[in-house]
Amino acid sequence: MTPFVRWARTHPRAMDAALAAAVLLCMIAASFADPNGGRDGTPTWGTRSPQVLSVVLMVLGAAALVLRRRAPMAVLAATSVVTLAELVTGDPRAPVAMCAVVALYTVAATTDRPTTWRVGLATMAVLSGAAMLAGPLPWYSQENLGVFAWTGMAAAAGDAVRSRRAFVDAIRERAERAERTREEEARRRVAEERLRIARDLHDVVAHHIALVNVQAGVASHVMDKRPDQAKEALSHVREASRSALNELRATVGLLRQSGDPEAPTEPAPGLDRLEDLVGTFRNAGLPVEVACADRATGLQAAVDLAAYRIIQEALTNVQKHAGAEAKAEVSVLRVGPNIEVTILDNGPGTEQPSPDSGGHGLLGMRERVAAIGGSCSAGPRYGGGFRVHAILPVQAHATAGLATDTGDAG
Questions:
Q1: What are phi and psi for residue 248, nearest 5 degrees?
Q2: Which of 4, 131, 253, 305 sits 20 to 30 Å CA-CA off 311?
Q3: Cα–Cα distance for residue pair 171/164, rounded to 1 Å
């Protein structure tokens, strides 16, 4: 944008005043010319001079143009009136119609197309009719046809400018909307990534800290009477804490920026590590039976991880809520295009977290399963205990979104 254009946009009133002065000078200069004064029909200069009334009308018409942006319709009406007065009384005529042409252009550039058509046709008809019917010249003279042509061109030019401005504004609006959409999408992805990391941290902390708590309690209870068992319990505490640190390191590694030390590249856990997971609970004193068939054949990484995390969360809840005498059963079966994961326990179901309570563990399970197109249900069993049942598609849906390692918070 040039400095002049920038100044013109910031000082519209000054530009309108300058335009009005320029139009006045053009009208006065043209009033001294006779368009057909020469022998061959060419214009001649200085062969005639405007009347005093014509000069007054030219000044009034030009002065009205100063307000053309604020009240375009009123300015058009005022300039049309002075033009009509000149067409009827002027002899010879001065080009007062020039100010009406500028006013009509302004109306066409600032209003809609139907209004431009109506106002433009009315202005053309009134001014052209007055020019052809009044005055000594025949209706088909060059001056009369010029009034018709110039008013028509002013309306067409104003409409073209308005259309171009609308087109440019539409392009700019689409670009701004696209930019806002990209920013909103980026913020949404950041929020989802934060939620994913938070849930994964919960999986790691809730599982391993629960095991550490149980084994530490066992060690404290048998420290004096059975030191060998206490030593074994402390060994399990050390192993669980080491596993927790490793998984925390892997999870926090996701937050590293480019240029930071290389993050761990250990793959996310899946059903191939189910026995190791169940072993940690067995070592903590929770009897767990496993029935698993065709556990890892053809499973996508998101589905495999979801099944592992659901079992981990459910067994952690059993360890924390089901009581000391509770037992758990885990089954992973492939049924058609789905994998069904079921975790049962025989503890007091009323002590398990409710699916609709404020806890986030079961809610996280459901969100994780829904993210890959499956379903999940959880609730007390008839006769006591708790049941978690998830149906996962072998091939996650294409619309699953971020179905990666998102831990469940509970």
A1: -65, -40
A2: 253
A3: 11
Measure the N-to-C terminal CA separation of the chain; round to a whole number of Å: 58
Q: In what order do the strands lie in the sheet with 386-393?
A: 288-292, 328-335, 338-345, 386-393, 375-380
Q: Could you read off the pLDDT of 273-318 as tens digits, one per residue?
A: 888 888 888 888 889 999 887 655 667 888 888 888 899 888 988 8
Residues 99, 27 contacting (CB under 8 angstroms): yes
Contacts of 98 (CB under 8 A, 6+ apart): 23, 26, 27, 30, 61, 150
- Whether 284 and 237 have beta carbons less than 8 Å apart is answered as no
pLDDT tens-place string over residues 122-143? 988 888 888 888 766 777 777 7
CA distance 248 to 371: 23
Q: Is 410's pLDDT higher than 60?
A: no
Structure tokens at 60: 């009034």
Q: What is the pLDDT of residue 356?
A: 46
Neighbours of 177 (CB within 10 A): 10
Cβ within 8 Å of residue 186, ≥6 positions away: none
